[in-house]
């Protein structure tokens, strides 16, 4: 929505000026393109190698400002990277600089992409099941192994 209003503003300025000031238009477009779209200093990093760890991610993004956290999301069973992670900076300006510089670059031999992190969506709680009642209507199965008589 903000992009559309900014675009309308540029078009209205460009159409209201005469033809001699047409050199202003590229400047207006460039300034709109470079405006930050980040609302928080947390970045989502995708395309990570399976061998990338927290330390490697931290070292790659440390040059753009003071890091609060650099976390590679790992599989619970294997402990390997799932291929994405999160980096959090102290300020939005540092995060924007890292986003512009690191998106499309190589890290551990893989091209990574840097995007703004979205807030986690709440999950509905799992349905509660009581101990004495079957989970589905119909026959119940006794799961006892061996003699129980």
TrEMBL record:
Lineage start: Eukaryota, Viridiplantae, Streptophyta, Embryophyta, Tracheophyta
GO MF annotation terms: RNA binding
InterPro entries, A to Z: Nucleotide-bd_a/b_plait_sf, RBD_domain_sf, RRM_dom
Region span, Disordered: 116-149
Domain of life: Eukaryota
Biased segments, Low complexity type: 129-138
Domain RRM stretches: 41-119
Keywords: RNA-binding
Name of this protein: Organelle RRM domain-containing protein 2, mitochondrial-like
């Amino acid at each position: 929505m903000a992009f559309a209003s900014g675009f309308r503003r540029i078009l209205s300025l460009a159409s209201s000026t005469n033809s001699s000031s047409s050199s202003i238009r590229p400047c207006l477009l460039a300034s709109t393109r470079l405006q930050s779209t980040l609302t928080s200093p947390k970045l989502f990093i995708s395309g990570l190698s399976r061998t990338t760890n927290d330390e490697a991610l931290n070292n790659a993004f440390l040059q753009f400002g003071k890091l609060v956290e650099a976390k590679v999301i790992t599989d619970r069973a294997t402990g390997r990277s799932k291929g994405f992670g999160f980096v959090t900076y102290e300020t939005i300006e540092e995060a924007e600089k890292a986003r512009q510089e690191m998106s499309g670059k190589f890290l551990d031999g893989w091209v990574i992409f840097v995007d703004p992190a979205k807030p986690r969506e709440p999950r509905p709680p799992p349905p509660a099941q009581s101990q004495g009642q079957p989970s589905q209507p119909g026959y119940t199965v006794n799961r006892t192994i061996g003699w129980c008589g």
